[in-house]
Amino acid sequence: MSENDDDFSKKNSREFFEEKKRRIEIEKKSKQKRNTVVFLIVATVVELVVMLACMCVFYALILFISYRLFKSQSSVPFQSASIFAFVGGVVVGFISQKKIMRFFIDKLHLQDKLQDGIADHYVSRKSWMKKQERR
After folding, report:
1. What is d(CA 93, CA 87) in angstroms, rounded to the nearest whole number?
2. C-alpha–C-alpha distance, residues 76 and 78, integer Å
3. Contact, 14 vs 22, CB < 8 A?
4. Best CA proximity match to 108, nearest among 53, 38, 45, 54
5. In a 3-state reduction of DSSP, which class is residue 114?
6. Who wins on pLDDT, 3 or 32?
7. What is the per-residue pLDDT across 11-29, written as a single tens digit (0 to 9) for each?
8. Long-range contact list for 126-134, CB < 8 A, 24+ apart?
9. 3-state secondary structure of 6
């Protein structure tokens, strides 16, 4: 009877450790998912702020150049400034936001705290190519 009890306790302890390991893995994945959601929300807010700031800078720069340097009196520079400021702000905003997020990922060591594809999205092209070569 003691042998049966011993086998049962070994089986129980093994199942207990497997269950504990499985729960730890589930907790880790849910924490990674939560961290990823928070990171994406912060990245979106940063992107919007940077994009709006770039648009305002481009808008002011274009208007300064057209009205102060060229001494224009018409409203055409004002209308064209809107288009160029929007497009330029969006493009420069995207590029700078990606660099800012890459800096924070590296600085705060977030690669292992985020889901796999998210951290890879913000790596530089050189790092991405190295990772692809290793595969």
Report:
1. 10
2. 5
3. no
4. 38
5. coil
6. 32
7. 677 788 888 889 999 998 8
8. none
9. helix
Whole-number percent of the chain with pLDDT over 90: 38
Q: b/e for 76-85, b at 16 or more Cβ within 10 A? A: ebeeebeeeb
Condensed to tens digits (0 to 9), the pLDDT of residues 65-82 reads 887 877 777 777 778 778
**Calculated CA dihedral for residues 127, 110, 44, 120, nearest 10 degrees:** 30
The amino acid sitting at 92 is: V
Instruction: Give the per-residue pLDDT at 5.
Output: 53
Burial of 113 from C-beta contacts in 10 A (0-12 / 13-18 / 19+): middle
